[in-house]
Amino acid sequence: MVKKAGFARNDVGIRQILNLWYKRNHNLMKSYNLGKTFTSLKSPNFRLWFIGQVVSLVGTWMQSTAQNFLVYELTHSAAYLAIVGFANGIPTIIFTLLGGLTADRFSKRKVIVIAQAAMMVLAGILAVLAFTHLIQPWHIVVLAFLLGVANSFDAPARQAFVVDMVERENLANAIALNSTIFNLGAIVGPATAGLVYAWLGPAWCFTINSISFIAVITALLLMKLPPRVVQHTIGSPFAKLIEGLRFVINEPRIRLLLGYVAVVSIFGFSLMTLMPAWSVKILGGDVKLNGLLLTARGAGSLLGALMIAYISSHFVRNKIWLIGWYLMPVALFAFAFMRWIPGSFMLLVLLGWCLMSVLNISNALIQSYVSDQMRGRVMSVYTLVFFGSMPLGALVAGGLATAFGEPSTAMICAGVILVATIGTFFFRKTIQQF
User: Could you tell me the CATH number of the domain that includes residue 248?
Assistant: First the structure.
């Protein structure tokens, strides 16, 4: 009887502890408003955009993953991976400012539809070449360049189009969810590409991408947008480009953020160019492992985008921007030495979170700072810095990998990012002033 009473007393104590735990955590869960994270989806236009882009970007990531692995299969060269990355990125430097001007002067929706249709055709051509077994590495280089031209007009228009779909107070949330779309594709696309490539071949990855553009084009055409206010401007298009550049140059805060975006683009994303070689040479895997590594990075980016979408405090966002910088070189250094595949996945998740936190918050800070009339041109400069730095990063990564190997390349990139991270200690007040 004594034992039973003891058990009864213990049972009562356990129940009290569990009840207390439930009450505290239930209140915490109630305070977490999931709808706050997805508040921009209340807009019918943004819902259409979200659905169409998710479908399309899964296809885009499938093509990117399959294309790079196909290049590595055809050439067994990290340098050729860099050449393809350079060909895809160099049009950004040439055409993006013109793309931003186009977004300011014409209907953003029409610009996006035309660019998306062009990319659909290019993916179809790549699929035909792969199906007929005529494809050569130089074909991929040429098509990557043309895809970069289309993206140079598409990206600034897409960046500036977000504000046309939501209220200004929801802009930061919409930008974060826009990145969430991208990263949903980055999770599903590479993993799916790895399986489709292994089972059916690369041609089907390119075919699926070509078909997927129908979703976003349909979504754009179904949107009911307010009448476009035509801005009657004086001066030539070239003068308007110069005006946008002058605005960015004369704004030290924007200039600082763009400098950090360039560092991330060159030394943070360049490792992704080498993933086909890394998965085969360093980790002893194949196309499926390549897809899963890219998926891990996408999962981390998705976590970062969702976190930023939920957080409305500018102060907290600025702190996350700094934390992203502190953890980025750590993740890269550790990845350079990691040979355990699950550990590689975990480090790429962390790296993806850091990259997305830094880029998303930089994007939101810049967009909230500029006027509607200037936004297209300023975001074209942002696109120029981000995407335009990538071909340089691809060449740097390819050259370093050829000379010193992939792990040493990761360590060098981590070292450069560490220097930039140290610089954030001197610019914290500037970031907090946004």
Answer: 1.20.1250.20
